[in-house]
Structure to design on (209 residues):
């Protein structure tokens, strides 16, 4: 109680635990990789795929502490095509085209400051793929003729995925109600051994009410 009286006298009411919400926009680098060298979908040299994310969040205080439950809902689209030769006459190609919705459920700790409050966070992420148009081809070359086998459509990416996420950032207070949020976050998803792995590095910006 003494702490909150001091904060009130210093006109720092933004430090009081309260419900916050807002929207986020970000830039995410999605890194795909074969789960193992024996995986059906193993292609060395996967590249990172950059995409935009857009969503909203709510921040629920945990009693009178500097911690909160930070819950988001955001969407993103991924598109990637990549091929690799296993030898001079054969190889594989993969095409990914999907749209997903993600639900991070994080615990955030904020170091409350007057102007800029740094924070760290971590928790679980659930992801639902609502558009899942992915295919995997194999091809063989004999002289000047290239034969492409029928694509394998599944399982490349699950429709439902779960993972863990950690991040850090800063909340820049405009006044007692509004703030700008900047964040760097890393997410990795749990995958079956027959599925390609997905890791994400996100740069997020948000406006908080």
């Amino acid at each position: 109680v003494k702490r909150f009286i001091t904060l009130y006298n210093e006109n720092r009411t933004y430090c009081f635990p309260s419900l916050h919400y807002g929207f986020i926009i970000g830039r995410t680098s999605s890194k795909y990789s074969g789960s193992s060298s024996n995986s059906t979908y193993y292609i060395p040299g996967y590249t990172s795929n950059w995409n935009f994310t857009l969503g909203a969040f709510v921040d629920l205080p945990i009693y009178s502490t500097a911690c909160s439950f930070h819950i988001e809902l955001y969407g993103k689209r991924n598109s990637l095509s990549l091929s690799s030769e296993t030898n001079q006459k054969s190889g594989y190609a993969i095409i990914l085209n999907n749209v997903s919705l993600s639900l991070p459920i994080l615990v955030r700790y904020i170091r409350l400051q007057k102007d800029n409050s740094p924070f760290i966070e971590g928790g679980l992420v659930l992801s639902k793929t609502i558009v899942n148009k992915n295919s995997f081809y194999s091809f063989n070359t004999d002289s000047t003729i290239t034969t492409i086998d029928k694509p394998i459509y599944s399982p490349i990416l699950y429709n439902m995925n779960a993972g863990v996420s950690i991040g850090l950032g800063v909340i820049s207070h405009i006044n007692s109600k509004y703030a700008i949020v900047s964040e760097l976050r890393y997410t990795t998803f749990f995958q079956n051994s027959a599925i390609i792995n997905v890791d994400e590095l996100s740069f997020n910006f948000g406006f908080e009410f």
User: Anything to note?
Assistant: The mean pLDDT is 82. The CA atoms of residues 119 and 188 lie 20 Å apart. The helical segments are 2-9.
